[in-house]
Known about the structure:
The protein folds into two domains: 4-126, Rossmann fold (3-Layer(aba) Sandwich); 131-228, CATH 2.40.50.1020. It is α/β, with parallel strands linked by helices. The strands form four sheets. Strands 2-1-3-4-5 form a five-stranded parallel β-sheet. Strands 10-9-8-12-11 form a five-stranded antiparallel β-sheet. The chain has helices at residues 13-23, 38-45, 64-70, 87-92, 105-126, 173-180, 221-228; strands at 4-9, 29-35, 52-55, 76-81, 97-100, 131-136, 139-144, 148-154, 157-162, 166-169, 185-189, 192-195, 201-202, 206-209, 212-215. A hairpin with a 2-residue loop joins strand 11 and strand 12.
Amino acid sequence: MSKINCxxxxxxxxxxxxxxxYLFEIQNWHIAAEFTNAIDAINYLSENSVDVVFLDIQLPKxxxxxxxxxxxxxxxxxxxxxxxxxxxxxxxxxxxxYLLKPYPFERFFKTINRINNHLQSKSSTEMVNDxxxxxxxxxxxxxxxxxxxxxxxQKEYISIVCEKKTVKTRLSMSKIESMLRDxxxxxxxxxxxxxxxxxxxxxxxxxxxxxxxxxxGRYYQKxxxxxxx
Length: 229
């Protein structure tokens, strides 16, 4: 099963540490980031995609409910709170699960298993082929994923750099990242997504793919090392 990326939004340190300790016990789950307020998390999600958000409701600046309402297409949301009075509203917002503090590992693990099954079923039906179609100059262009070397963000466009052609299309980096995460692609910079099997060499600051040199963003260095080593 592919790695599942999640973020944690929790302003109470003990509660944050409990979630982290639980997730460290579970295979294929990666904590991409952690936040003490929803505003910073919204800014992160505007440029990055994740599979799951563990979300407290009582947060400074913006509540957990406000956070959910601010997202057009939210990831799977798991509420972690000490208050049960928000449960009805949360499930009306299609929250995946609602964990009442203090919750034991067994209850948390049950949620994890449900998410694993949900994502596995979703990925098997969303993209069963090793190609995608994108729009370029009012035409549908078929792209063989095995030919893609890297993808570069260029303001409102992205350039999909293949071995024999480059295709420009109107897609966000977060959207293309979510489409390709299970197909051997890795975000290495806010502006770059690379095909892992095309990497020739790498250092702390850059990745070489043939004659191309791709910078590694400071925020992404830990994840790059984890995936490439």
